[in-house]
């Protein structure tokens, strides 16, 4: 990962993960049992107002509310903590097209959740801003300047 000139988005590549995700909402006092048994990617965040779980759609958690149909782009990292603007650049590219986005962060990286129904438009918006998007399932990288597979 390289640092671009001031005012430009940092150069990052993204990997489209195979997961099909849901965002589950619970009361903040809910005790979650067997969390370590969730399949695939998952994340839990608790605040004083809610408990949110991001997990595979197939997890079928008995939540107070659920929003399904999300796909995940993993920002290829690790990302140094002093590198600013990663999430802002990604979310701006998608939001400028009026498309929804949900963000998770880890110690080493950021994850951009995109609506599955708008996945192609979201990926194109990111490519148009110069982001390289990897598709490990197809084992092909997409050239951001042409939107075509690289060899």
How do the helices and strands line up, and which of them pair or pack?
Layout: E1 13-16, E2 21-26, E3 43-46, E4 51-56, E5 65-75, H1 86-95, E6 101-105, E7 110-115, H2 119-128, E8 132-135, E9 140-143, E10 148-149
Parallel strand pairs: 1-8
Antiparallel strand pairs: 1-5, 2-4, 2-5, 3-4, 5-7, 6-7, 8-9, 9-10
Give a written overview of the molecule.
With 151 residues, the protein is mainly beta. It is 13% helix and 34% strand. It contains two helices and ten strands. Strands 1, 2, 3, 4, 5, 6, 7, 8, 9 and 10 form a ten-stranded mixed beta sheet that branches. The longest helix has 10 residues, at 86-95. The two termini are 21 Å apart.
Question: Short summary of the structure?
Answer:
The protein is mostly beta strands. The protein contains 2 helices and 10 strands, in the order βββββαββαβββ. It has helices spanning about 85-95, 120-130, and strands at about 15, 20-25, 45, 50-55, 65-75, 100-105, 110-115, 130-135, 140-145, 150.
Mean model confidence by pLDDT: 85
Topology as H/E string? EEEEEHEEHEEE
Ends distance:
21 Å
Helical content band: 10-25%
- Strand residue content: 25-35%
The overall strand count is 10
Q: Which descriptor suits the 3D outline?
A: globular
Structural class by sheet pairing and helices: mainly beta
Sequence stretches where pLDDT stays below 50 over 5 or more residues: 1-7, 139-144
Please count the helical segments.
2
Report the C-alpha radius of gyration, rounded: 16 Å
Biggest sheet descriptor: 10 strands, mixed
